[in-house]
Amino acid sequence: xxxxxxxxxxxxxxxxxxxxxxxxxxxxxxxxxxxxxxxxxxxxxxxxxxxxxxxxxxxxxxxxxxxxxxxxxxxxxxxxxxxxxxxxxxxxxxxxxxxxxxxxxxxxxxxxxxxxxxxxxxxxxxxxxxxxxxxxxxxxxxxxxxxxxxxxxxxxxxxxxxxxxxxxxxxxxxxxxxxxxxxxxxxxxxxxxxxxxxx
Length: 199
Known about the structure:
Elements: H1 2-5, H2 10-17, H3 21-28, H4 36-46, H5 50-53, E1 82-85, E2 89-94, E3 99-102, E4 107-109, E5 117-118, E6 145-150, H6 155-161, E7 163-167, E8 171-173, E9 179-181, E10 189-192
Antiparallel strand pairs: 1-2, 1-5, 2-3, 3-4, 6-7, 6-10, 7-8, 8-9
């Protein structure tokens, strides 16, 4: 269910999880149980909690309160804490000045706040993974730029390093000089011709 909600094909999910399609199909059909490590990888891939994958009711999720909107009247208690606005992205709460400071330099008075804010961004606003077939290593030089998806169990690292990279002679490089070398293709990273669909 989580895989289908993210619109990821069985083939793409099995490849991303490094398992066979029959194995993933058996997990989804509850004919076999995945390991704890596999549950964690699925949770990160699909952007849901392990509790969700296990079918636990929402009220049992660990720290479900972090996924709920923050009531406007209590936002000032988050002074000097980042909060996420669906409409404008991340902002820092400044209770002394009574404003939200957004990453683009804009401010929003707390007294006039109409945006819904969260401690964590809801899963539906996080860009999904690319679901198209990755390029083969020998196809990389046919492109000037490619979308890179790092391979790592560290979801924060993946989100930080994913993006558009320029194809060079032995590596790809993004605008800030981060590189992925061809020698580690299909071990540490994969390349695609298109980025993920942002909902």
